[in-house]
Design goal:
2 domains, Rossmann fold, alpha/beta, three-stranded mixed β-sheet, about 400 residues, six-stranded mixed β-sheet, about 40% helix, 14 helices
């Protein structure tokens, strides 16, 4: 058989991932690929950022992969050996992609070596067996089960006899059988403390998720899907809340004042006086009727979180035809809401307005509701998802309104 063009083979492995694993393909396409030869700090494959660089790169050492192909093709059936070599090359690409998807590049464990092993145990068990090389670390080597996260493996390895024996024997040292482990993660240094890098990596995953079809997403393992959904639960806000609140305070200054016995009235010289609140007190009513689907709820609560992150005191009211639950928002959303019946926007508005303790009401809805006959005294901002384009079909013509939309 003619001598292999190893770089061409590596590109073939990447193309194989793009063709057959849609989500992983969308991840890997966002990184620059770097091909190196020995001597080099990366002797196998690695994903990360080189010192002085701004961007994350995916590195392949051609000499290492040439050795992998030679290992499989040294027998009599070279065609079968070539097939196996290509599978393992694709598995190596998956390995690096999974480190990105599982957010490993921004995790820094106190015991770096033990953390490196723990993260490889997680990654390798999510790669099909035929794409694994015999030298790659698996949970069974240390008598551990599959299906756990890196933190769990990190703790279990602390007193693991086999791991400690590997460490003591120098298996992870410069001449050891796992000498490649530390160097393959060496490009992660400093990423855990770099908020720009953290957001960039999260954006890589978000773009890949958004561009993956429902069929392609369904082919991703359930544990990976669950992790990614949790990681991406919060998106950048669609509404510039800091500017909205600045404008609101300027246009509705009276509603941001409160009575206090600690001050005299400047007009009458008596108590109570008034003072300006340092923080806005915002009532957020979330339409939880049956016409609001799970994705719309995620969009609403994403914006609510950014209201809260901008310093407002946020009280959430879940309502369909009336308020069904209320609580102070503290940054989390479980996807479980009360209500799920019909829709009446006026009743919850009236109930909240009567409380007279909020600077404004933010109402998240699709505006599929009967007409509202009475306007509350508290200023209202409508946050609309999938509302009718024809404004004449809206249940009211007052209050400021902004639209948010699902990401395609």
């Amino acid at each position: 058989m003619a001598e292999l063009d190893i770089r061409k083979e590596l590109l073939r492995s990447i193309i194989s991932v793009v063709r057959h694993k849609e989500f992983y393909g969308h991840v890997v396409q966002q990184f620059e690929k770097v091909f190196v030869s020995n001597p080099h700090r990366i002797s196998t494959a690695a994903v990360g950022r080189y010192p002085g660089d701004r961007f994350i790169k995916l590195t392949y050492n051609e000499d290492y992969f040439r050795g992998v192909y030679d290992e499989y093709m040294k027998g009599s059936d070279q065609r079968e050996g070539l097939r196996k070599g290509r599978l393992v090359a694709s598995g190596a690409s998956e390995h690096e992609i999974l480190h990105v998807v599982l957010n490993h590049l921004v995790i820094a464990y106190p015991d770096k070596l033990r953390g490196d092993v723990a993260m490889d145990l997680v990654v390798n068990q999510n790669i099909p067996g035929e794409r694994l090389h015999a030298s790659w670390l698996m949970p069974e080597r240390y008598g551990l089960p599959n299906g756990e996260n890196s933190k769990w493996y990190y703790e279990q390895l602390r007193g693991n006899d086999k791991f400690n024996a590997d460490r003591a024997s120098g298996a992870f040292g410069p001449e050891g059988v796992f000498s490649w482990l530390a160097e393959s993660h060496s490009l992660w240094g400093g990423l855990d403390g770099d908020p720009v890098a953290r957001e960039f990596l999260k954006d890589v995953i978000r773009k890949a998720r958004d561009n993956t079809s429902s069929e392609g997403w369904g082919k991703v393992g359930s544990d990976i899907r669950e992790f990614v959904d949790g990681l991406l639960q919060w998106r950048p806000p669609q509404i510039p809340w800091s500017r909205v609140f600045r404008n609101f305070c300027a246009s509705a200054e009276d509603s941001c004042l409160e009575y206090t016995m600690s001050r005299l009235s400047r007009r009458f010289g008596t108590r109570p006086g008034i003072r300006r609140r340092d923080r806005l007190h915002v009532a957020v009513i979330v339409d939880t009727s049956m016409s609001i689907d799970r994705e719309q709820l995620r969009l609403f609560f994403n914006e609510i979180r950014w209201i809260w992150r901008n310093g407002a005191v946020v009280h959430v009211f879940e309502a369909d035809t009336a308020i069904k639950d209320d609580y102070e928002f503290r940054g989390s959303f479980t996807c479980e809401v009360a209500g799920r019946g019909g829709t009446n926007l006026e009743v919850p508005l009236t109930q909240v307005d009567k409380m007279r303790r909020f600077d404004c009401i933010v109402y998240c809805t699709d505006f599929e509701a009967p007409a509202i006959s009475r306007r509350p005294r508290t200023p209202v901002l409508w946050v609309l998802s999938d509302a009718p384009e024809d404004r004449s079909a809206w249940p009211c013509d007052w209050g400021a309104a902004v639209r948010i939309e699902s990401v395609a």
